[in-house]
Design a protein that fits this description.
Strands 1-2-3 form a 3-stranded antiparallel beta sheet. It has 2 domains: about 30 residues, no CATH class; about 90 residues. The protein is mostly helical and about 120 residues long. The protein has 4 helices and 3 strands; from the N terminus they run αββαβαα.
Length: about 120
C-alpha cells in the first residue's frame, strides 16, 4: 500500500519538476535543473558533437551540458576568427608587396589626392 502511494507521490513530484525545468537524475538521485534549448542552442549542441542531429536534441538538457556545448562553440568561433585574421593579414601583406612592385604607394596616392582637391577648389 505504501509502495503504491510512494510511486504516485513521486510521479506527481516528477511532473511538477518537469514543468518548471527540472528533472530527476536516476544515477545520483538528485534533482537536476534543466534548460530548454532554443533553435540556435540546438544547433550548438549538434555542432559541438553532443547529438547527431537537431531532431535528436531533447526538450530539456542540463545546464552543464548546455554550458559545455556553448564553450566548445565559443572556442571554435574564436579559433576560426583567429585563422581568418591571420589570413587577412597575409593577404594585406601580399597586396602591399604587389602595390610596391607596381610603384604605387600611400604617399603617391596622398599627393595625387591633394593635387586633385586643390585643382577642384581653384575651379570653384
Amino acid at each position: 500500500m505504501f509502495g503504491i502511494l510512494n510511486i504516485v507521490a513521486n510521479r506527481k513530484k516528477y511532473a511538477e519538476n518537469f514543468k518548471i525545468g527540472k528533472f530527476f537524475s536516476q544515477e545520483t538521485g538528485k534533482t537536476i535543473h534543466g534548460h530548454t534549448p532554443n533553435n540556435l542552442e540546438k544547433r550548438f549542441l549538434v555542432w559541438s558533437g553532443k547529438y547527431k542531429s537537431i531532431e535528436e536534441v531533447p526538450s530539456f538538457v542540463s545546464y552543464d551540458v548546455m554550458e559545455r556545448s556553448r564553450n566548445k562553440v565559443r572556442i571554435r568561433v574564436a579559433n576560426i576568427m583567429i585563422a581568418l585574421t591571420v589570413l587577412g593579414c597575409c593577404l594585406m601583406v601580399y597586396s602591399g608587396k604587389q602595390a610596391a612592385k607596381s610603384g604605387d604607394s600611400v604617399v603617391k596616392q596622398n599627393l595625387d589626392w591633394h593635387k586633385k582637391y586643390n585643382e577642384e577648389s581653384k575651379k570653384a
